[in-house]
Predict the structure.
Amino acid sequence: MPGIVIIGVQWGDEGKGKATDLLGERTDWVVKFNGGNNAGHTVVIGDEKYALHLLPSGILSPGVNAVIGNGVVVDLEVLFAELEALNARGLDTSRLRISANAHVITQYHRTLDKVTERFLGKRMIGTTGRGIGPTYADKINRVGIRIQDLFDENILRQKVEGALDQKNHLLVKVFNRRSITVDEIVDDLLSYAERVRPMVADTSLLLNDALDAGDVVVFEGGQATMLDVDHGTYPFVTSSSATAGGASTGAGVGPNRLDRIVGIVKAYTTRVGSGPFPTELFDEQGDWLRKRGFEFGTTTGRPRRVGWYDAPITRYATRINGITDLVMTKLDILTGLDQIPVCVAYDVDGERFDEVPVNQSDFHHATPILEYFPGWKDDISGARTFEDLPLEAQDYVLALEAMSGTRISVIGVGASRDAVIVRHDLVD
């Protein structure tokens, strides 16, 4: 099974980096296929903690080929800052390859992102202000800048001129900001051209050749299912395809090359930004869960919204993605609770919904129908087999598995690299 997709089941921050790292020793290639530096992966290796934002998590594993696919939008300043930080810590980043077709985030994308959010006021989406959405908008509007454009100054200048013709009108006349000159954008982008050139490749060809050779290729998704631009809580979503289908379009491989779809799900639920969140907690339990789980953004540092596990969302994600295996993270965070609530359905104005409502307004007004499970007191961070867990923890996992529509193959019981219980192998 050479093609493995790793995607988030909820609203992101589920621990996808840990799952990718778990596969690292048997992985030949790790591909980031969507998003940009608006999401972060935290990976703990021994006593070392690594926070990655743009780079694939697999870059931390010796001998693994890391790829930034065509579906990613690349902030070159962030790219080289991350590479330099890893190099300074003695890591080899020479195996990184970047798709020539990936789009570039420019200064005007970041500026427009920030001023547009402020302009929306109460209707703001809750973006990170890093220019992700405007860059994807330019991609769809066919006025984007791609990595390959950096190697032809005439084409680059023409494209920047075309993009700024409209954007400067918006900045000056609508947002009361100064106009941006073509020269400052072109000069900035060209300053990275020779540094990035050795990394650029036809990554679609590389990946298909690798799959033909029987290499294990892991496709690592940013954000998560409920933030997908098509299948998430629109409009409170990201601007890319964060579901399993995005691995095909964002990396340039056929869907028949994707053999296993691994969904990452927390033992509870979190999200950042605006939008509906039926199980969200606003009380002392929410504060306890946030602090205990250290639920603060890897990229932004902002507090995450927290709530109990939502079974209908996991079922929905399983169906949308064709998930074959679930990796449940942070089970240890629930240790100490007398009882653990789980959302098994929703109530919308007196009507029960056992699945995620298709109508966004219904989902916005949904309140959770909860079922309660006995908690456990024993520290589970040292558990390495399912039988090592307290019976209450085993029952909790089995109950969630029964509600999810697929098997829970791996359970995270701590922050360290080896704090996992493997019930089913993700590769064989």
In short: The chain is about 30% helix and 20% strand. The chain has a mean pLDDT of 92. Residues 103-197 form a domain with the Adenylosuccinate Synthetase, subunit A; domain 2 fold (CATH 1.10.300.10). The two ends are 7 Å apart (CA to CA).
